[in-house]
Amino acid sequence: QVQLVESGGGLVQPGGSLRLSCEASGFRVSDYTMRWYRQAPGKVREFVASIFGVGGSTDYVTSVRGRFTISRDNAKNILYLQMNSLRPEDTAVYYCHVRRVGMDYWGKGTLVTVSS
Fold first, then answer.
1. Pairing mode, strands 110-114 and 92-100
2. What is the pLDDT of residues 62-109, one digit of tens each?
3. Alpha carbons 25 and 3: distance in angstroms, whole number
4. CA proximity to 97, closest of 56, 55, 45, 54
5. Rg (CA), the chain
6. 53, 32 in Cβ contact below 8 A?
7. 3-state secondary structure 4-63
8. Residue 80 to residues 19, 23, 57, 115: CA-CA distances in angstroms?
9. Which DSSP letter does residue 89 get?
10. Tens-place pLDDT, residues 27-47
11. β-pairing verdict for 3-7 and 58-60
12. d(CA 31, CA 38)
């Protein structure tokens, strides 16, 4: 049974940092492309970052490139998103995602609020 559980969100001041975690079960994060998405209030869900299963290459939406880093711990089966230099416009619920055997799986999300 595939499960994704995000954690690490919270309230942070502009310029601050947070690290999000996504604990995966039922599959190995190293075998699939893992993605982070986010959904801000009143907006559609958008892609944030991805890490490919084979080789581990990464990709980012332009607005976070250079500030966010996606990574994974294969031994712990956890996906991470390190977020630095946070801005108010980064405020959103952050979700991890995997497409496995033609099906999309999502966690319930973790809320990140960037505000002074």
1. antiparallel
2. 999 999 999 999 999 999 999 999 999 999 999 999 999 999 999 999
3. 5
4. 45
5. 13
6. yes
7. EEEECCEEECCCCCEEEEEEEECCCHHHCCEEEEEECCCCCCEEEEEECCCCCCEEECHH
8. 7, 9, 14, 22
9. G
10. 999 999 999 999 999 999 999
11. unpaired
12. 23
Residue 38: both structure tokens together: 């986010």
d(CA 57, CA 86) in angstroms, rounded, equals 23
Other beta carbons within 10 angstroms of residue 113's beta carbon come to 15
Residue found by looking up tokens 């892609």 in the block: 47
Q: How far is CA 105 from CA 15, 33, 48, 67, 109, in A?
A: 31, 12, 16, 26, 12
Distances (CA, A) of 53 to 59, 79, 94, 103, 109: 12, 11, 20, 16, 22
Q: Count the Cβ atoms, other than its own, within 10 Å of residue 106.
A: 14
Antiparallel, parallel or unpaired: β 110-114 and 78-83: unpaired
Report residue 25 as tokens: 């079960």
